[in-house]
Amino acid sequence: MDTTITVNNQMSVDEIQVQVDSIDRYIASGSVVVIQFSDGVYIVDKTIRINGFYGGGILTIQGNTAEVSSDICHTTQQVFLDASASPISVFQFNGCMVPVTILRNLKMKINCSAPSAGVDWYLSFYMLFGYNYVFGTAAQYGHDVQAYKSSMMLCRSNVLGKVAYGISSIGCPLLHSENNVDNGINDRPAWGLHVKYGGVISKQGTQPVGSSGPQKIEYGGEIR
Predict the structure, then answer these.
(1) Residue 144 and residue 160: Cα distance in Å, rounded?
(2) 0.85 exceeded by the pTM?
(3) Which of helix, strand or coil describes residue 13?
(4) Alpha-carbon distance values, 29 to 42, 44, 57, 99, 154 (Å)
(5) In whole angstroms, what is the distance from residue 89 CA to residue 215 CA?
(6) What are the b/e assignments for 190-205, b being 16+ CB within 10 Å?
(7) Low-confidence stretches of the chain (pLDDT beneath 70)
């Protein structure tokens, strides 16, 4: 059975979390669960945690999919999740084992005074991360999007702004980066792509240009 929950910017993160936690974690094959963010600016003072979904269906977290340039790189997303007040991750996914989790059409800002991320994709199966704009307060710390010991991720047509690392694969064996860009000389990651601890990134099309370099490879990672 398909399910949609809609959240809005009058809700606190705690109230949004209650709505997320109310969803049955089992998504049957052929079913789609949608967490729909209504247009507006959201003050994110705690990480939104999306954990433990399983089954054969699809989980989607999305903003306005009808906005201008909704299916190409853009910075005009109608949903803006602002976590710039303190160094936290906007989203953390843990143990999401449905065939595909989709996160799309969201703008996120993070605080880069300490480790943080727009999206932490942790110990999960496959994410399609597309048509988002993620940026930070500095290029000192933080990841726009990070796959950590997960199986797969496809990053497609995102704008990746000022943080330490744009797209990171940390122990993730299959992350594909396709047609992603930075937001120009004053809003780009220090490193566009980043791999560590055996993580792998494959590239196709445009990639974010880093202010320190296009890519950083550590501890057995591979970019190809």
Answers:
(1) 6
(2) yes
(3) helix
(4) 32, 32, 4, 9, 21
(5) 22
(6) bbbbbbbeebbbebee
(7) none
Q: CA nearest 45: which of 79, 20, 11?
A: 11
pLDDT at res. 1: 83
Do the strands 143-148 and 107-110 form a parallel or antiparallel pair, or are they unpaired? unpaired
Q: Are 194 and 172 in contact (CB under 8 A)?
A: no
Token pair belonging to 204: 């196709």
Report how far residue 207's alpha carbon sits from residue 185's, in angstroms, rounded to the nearest whole number. Answer: 14
- Taking the C-alpha atoms of residue 206 and residue 72, their distance in angstroms, rounded to an integer, is 12
Domain ranges, ordered by start, for the chain: 3-158
Q: Which of 104, 190, 111 is nearest to 155 (CA)?
A: 104
Name which of 104, 224, 219 is nearest 174 in CA terms: 224
Contact 220/201 with Cβ under 8 angstroms? no
Q: How many CB atoms are located within 10 Å of the residue 10 CB?
A: 9
pLDDT reported for residue 2: 95
Cα–Cα distance for residue pair 32/52, rounded to 1 Å: 16
* Residue written as token pair 């800002």: 109
DSSP codes, 14-76: HHHHHHHHTS-SEE-TT-EEEEEEPSEEEE--S-EEEE--EESSEEEEES-TTSTTTTSS-S-
Residue 91, pLDDT score: 98
Q: Which residue has the tokens 């990651």?
A: 189
| Token pair of 52 as six digits | 């433990």
